[in-house]
Specification:
The complex is a heterodimer. Chain A is of the alpha+beta class. Chain A is built from 13 helices and 20 strands. Chain A has 3 domains: 102 residues, Transcription Regulator spoIIAA (2-Layer Sandwich); 94 residues, PDZ domain (Pdz3 Domain), CATH 2.30.42.10; 193 residues, 2-enoyl-CoA Hydratase, Chain A, domain 1 (Alpha-Beta Complex). In chain A, the strands form 5 sheets. In chain A, strands 2, 3, 4, 5, 6 and 7 form a 6-stranded antiparallel beta sheet that branches. Chain B is an alpha+beta fold. Chain B contains 6 helices and 13 strands. The chains are: A alpha+beta, B alpha+beta.
C-alpha cells in the first residue's frame, strides 16, 4: 500500500505542468491503443467484482476507444484511459505518467533523509517531529518550524497544485506530505538545503545531510526494503504509548507492544499512535488487535477478492488489555493502519483521535503499459466491520483533533493530549 | 502431517465439495473401487509392512511463494499415534507454528497470535495429525468413492472422493499407471474463511522404504506455494516436549 501511495506522490511531485503537445506518431498511436486494451481487459478480468457494480464495461470500451483513436496528443490519450478508470468510481485505479513512473526505477536514490517528519498544517509544510541523533536534530531543527523551500524551490506552488487536484480526495494530506518528504529525501550522505521559518518567525537556511533512515531495514519478498522502528513510553504513570512507522517485522512489533503493556503496570489506558503509518502487512492488524480484544470470533472486517473472502479475524491474546484504548490517526495513516483503527472503532473497542485517514485500504499493484505509462489497479476490496469500505472514505475519528504549529512550537501534541484527557475520564 | 497429503495442513485445509458429481460418476462399472485404489497406493509407495516400521519422523524442507519473492524453511515433526508439529520460518515474517497433541489443535504466529482450532478446522488438523494416515484411512474417512477419471498433467488418473467423519470431502487423483497420488483438492475451512486448495505432488523418491513426493505445489487464495522436501528421517529422537501445547495456547485453554 505504501508503495502505491509513494508513486502517487511522486507522480504529483515530478509531473511538470506542461503536457505533451506533440502530435502522435503512428507507433505512439498503436502503443496507446495497446495500452487502452490492456487496461480495459485487466479491469474486466481482475477486478474483485466481475460485474463491476453493474457498469456496462463493454459499452465503456466502445465509447472511449473511438475517442482514443481520435486523440492527437499523449496527454489526451492518457486522459481517455484515466476517464475509463474513473467510470469505476473507485480510487486506486490510475494512469501514472511515464515520467513519474520512471522515477521509481531508481532504487535507493531516495533512501536518505535529514530526520524530520512533516505535515501540512493550514497550507504550510511544518516539521512535526525531529528524530533524535539525526542531522536535523544536530542542526537544531525543532517541531513547529515551517519549511519554505527545499533546494531553493518554493514548496507553496507545488502544494497549491496538489490542493487543487486533490481537494476532494481523502488522499490530499498524504500526497501533500509526500510531496515535501520526497524533496527532502535523496541518497544517504548527500546534502539538502532547506529554508525554514523558526519559532521566532525568523528565516533559517540550513544545509542538512541526508542520513540512513531511523530503524532497521526490513525486508519481505519483492517489497523494496523499508526502515522499521518502534518507540514506547509511559505518557504518564498508568498510560502506555506505542508508536511504530510501518506494520512490518511481526515478531519485533508484537514484542514491543507486549513489553509496553507489561511495563504499563496498573495500566489505566493505552495509546497506539499510527499517525503517518502507511500500512504494511495487512494481517498484522489482526495480530495487533489481539492484544486488546478479549472475545473470540470477532473480526475487523472482510477483504473481498474475486474468488475468495478473507475474514480479518482477531485471535485474542491470553491476557489482553481490557482498559481504555486510544488510537491516534491522521491523513497519512493508510492501509493496515486504517484496517486496524477502523476495525477497532467499528467494534467499539477503541476511541479514535486525530484527523481522517487516507482512505487507501485497497491492495493494489503497479504495471507498466506498452506506451510507458504506469497503471495502478486494486485487486481486492476491503469492508470494515461496520459495513463500510475504508477505501475513499478512511477512518473518521471519534474526536477530530488537528495539530497546530503554535502547539508544536510549544512542545505540545494536541492529539496525544486529547487521548490522555479521555483516558483519565474513563472509569477503571 | 501425512506424508503424501503433505502441505494440506500448511493451508489449514479441509476438503473439497464434489458430492453431486461423485455420486453420479461412481456408478460407472469399469472403475475400480476406491478401497482398491487406496490400498494400491500403499503398495506402490512401499507396502503396509514398511509403513508399520515407522513410528515417528522429522521432515525438513523449504517453501517459496515465487510471485512475491517470499521464501522460508519448513520443519515437521510427526509421531504415533496422532502428534504433529510444523514450523515455518519466513524472512521478514518470522515463525509460523501449528500442531496437535491429538487433543488440542492450535496455531501460533507473531502475525496473528495464538489460536485454538475448533469445529471442522480442528477436525481437519486432528485428521492430518494422525500418524500413518495413509495406511489408516479407514479410521479417518466414513466413505471413500471412485468418482471417475481425469487427466492430471497428461497422466490418466482415478479420482477418489474421501469423506471424513467431520468436515467437507476431499478429492484425490491417483495415477492409473503408477498408483501414486498426484493431486488433491479440498476446500480448507479456517477461522478466516473457506479457501479452495489444490495441490499437486511430484518428484517421488524413496526415503528409506517409502516412496515420497519431494515437490508439492499448492494453490490457495490466489497464492501459489512451492514446497520442497529436503530430508526425511524416521524413528528419530524427538525432544520430549516437542508436541507439548505452547504456553500461550495453554493460557487460552485455561480461560475457557
Amino acid at each position: 500500500m505504501w508503495f502505491r501511495i509513494c508513486v502517487l506522490a511522486l507522480a504529483v511531485a515530478c509531473a511538470g505542468p506542461a503536457a505533451d503537445k506533440n502530435t502522435l506518431t503512428p507507433a505512439a498511436r498503436q502503443s496507446n491503443a495497446d495500452s487502452f486494451e490492456y487496461v480495459w481487459k485487466t479491469v474486466r478480468d481482475k477486478h474483485w467484482d466481475p460485474k463491476l457494480g453493474g457498469l456496462d464495461w463493454q459499452a465503456v470500451h466502445d465509447e472511449l476507444r473511438v475517442k482514443l483513436d481520435q486523440s492527437t496528443t499523449m496527454e489526451e490519450a492518457r486522459q481517455i484511459m484515466q476517464s475509463m478508470l474513473e467510470r469505476l468510481k473507485e480510487t486506486h485505479f490510475h494512469i501514472v505518467p511515464a515520467e513519474a513512473y520512471e522515477e521509481l526505477d531508481k532504487p535507493g536514490s531516495r533512501e536518505g533523509n535529514p530526520g524530520i517528519d512533516v505535515r501540512i498544517l493550514e497550507g504550510q509544510a511544518v516539521v512535526t517531529s525531529v528524530d533524535a541523533d539525526s542531522p536535523a536534530a544536530a542542526r537544531g531543527v525543532k517541531p513547529g518550524w515551517q519549511i519554505v523551500r527545499v533546494d531553493g524551490k518554493e514548496l507553496a506552488p507545488a502544494l497549491g497544485r496538489i490542493q487543487e487536484s486533490f481537494a476532494k480526495s481523502t488522499l490530499l494530506d498524504l500526497i501533500r506530505t509526500r510531496a515535501v518528504t520526497s524533496r527532502l529525501s535523496g541518497a544517504a550522505g548527500t546534502p539538502v538545503k532547506a529554508d525554514f521559518v523558526n519559532g521566532a518567525g525568523k528565516p533559517v537556511a540550513l544545509s542538512l545531510d541526508r542520513a540512513r533512515p531511523r530503524g532497521i531495514m526490513a525486508r519481505l519478498g519483492y517489497l523494496p526494503p523499508m526502515y522499521f522502528w518502534t518507540e514506547s513510553r509511559a505518557i504518564r504513570p498508568g498510560i502506555g504509548y506505542v508508536r511504530f512507522d510501518i506494520f512490518f517485522e511481526p515478531e519485533q512489533l508484537m514484542k514491543a507492544v507486549g513489553d509496553a503493556l507489561k511495563s504499563c503496570g496498573e495500566c489505566r489506558g493505552f495509546i497506539i499512535d499510527v499517525r503517518g503509518n502507511p500500512g504494511g502487512i495487512g494481517a498484522l492488524a489482526m495480530g495487533l488487535a489481539g492484544w486488546f480484544m478479549d472475545r473470540q470470533g470477532l473480526q475487523l472486517g472482510n477483504m473481498f477478492l474475486r474468488a475468495n473472502t478473507i475474514k480479518f479475524v482477531v485471535f485474542p491474546r491470553p491476557q489482553p488489555f481490557r482498559g481504555p484504548l486510544a488510537i491516534l490517526v491522521d491523513g497519512c495513516s493508510a492501509s493496515t493502519s486504517e484496517i486496524f483503527a477502523g476495525g477497532l472503532k467499528d467494534l467499539a473497542r477503541a476511541r479514535i483521535f486525530g484527523t481522517r485517514t487516507a482512505g487507501a485500504a485497497l491492495p493494489s499493484v503497479f504495471e507498466k503499459l506498452p506506451n510507458g505509462d504506469g497503471f495502478q489497479y486494486a485487486i481486492a476490496n476491503y469492508i470494515s466491520q461496520g459495513g463500510k469500505p475504508l477505501e475513499g472514505i478512511g477512518v473518521i475519528p471519534d474526536e477530530e483533533v488537528k495539530l497546530t504549529r503554535q502547539q508544536l512550537l510549544a512542545g505540545q501534541d494536541s492529539v496525544v493530549d486529547a487521548a490522555v484527557s479521555w483516558i483519565l475520564k474513563q472509569k477503571n | 502431517m501425512n506424508r503424501h497429503f503433505a502441505g494440506r495442513n500448511i493451508a489449514l485445509a479441509a476438503a473439497v465439495l464434489f458430492a453431486t458429481g461423485a455420486a453420479r460418476l461412481a456408478a460407472a462399472d469399469d472403475l475400480p473401487k476406491a478401497e482398491t485404489i487406496l490400498d494400491k497406493f500403499i503398495d506402490a509407495t512401499g507396502g503396509k509392512a514398511a509403513y508399520q516400521k515407522i513410528h515417528n519422523e522429522m521432515t525438513t524442507g523449504a517453501m517459496t511463494i515465487a510471485a512475491n519473492g517470499i521464501s522460508g524453511t519448513l520443519t515437521v515433526y510427526h509421531a504415533e499415534p496422532d502428534k504433529s508439529y510444523t514450523e515455518i520460518n519466513i524472512e521478514g515474517v518470522g515463525k509460523l507454528m501449528e500442531g496437535t497433541d491429538g487433543k488440542v489443535a492450535w496455531s501460533l504466529s507473531a502475525i496473528q497470535g495464538p489460536h485454538v482450532k475448533e469445529g471442522e478446522e480442528k477436525a481437519d488438523a486432528l485428521r492430518t495429525g494422525r500418524f500413518n494416515g495413509e495406511l489408516n484411512w479407514r479410521d479417518l474417512y466414513k466413505q471413500v468413492q471412485t468418482a471417475g477419471t481425469e487427466s492430471v498433467d497428461g497422466k490418466d488418473c482415478y479420482k477418489v472422493v474421501l469423506t471424513p467423519k467431520e468436515g467437507n470431502p476431499l478429492t484425490h487423483y491417483y495415477d492409473k499407471q503408477s498408483s501414486l497420488l498426484v493431486k488433491s483438492t479440498q476446500t480448507a475451512k479456517t477461522a478466516m474463511g473457506e479457501f479452495p486448495v489444490e495441490q499437486t505432488l511430484g518428484e517421488y523418491r524413496k526415503e528409506g522404504e517409502i516412496l515420497l513426493p519431494h515437490k508439492v505445489m499448492q494453490k490457495a487464495a490466489g497464492q501459489e506455494i512451492a514446497i520442497t522436501i529436503d530430508t526425511v528421517k524416521y524413528n528419530v529422537d524427538i525432544p520430549k516436549d516437542r508436541f507439548d501445547v505452547p504456553d500461550e495456547i495453554k493460557a487460552l485453554l485455561n480461560k475457557k
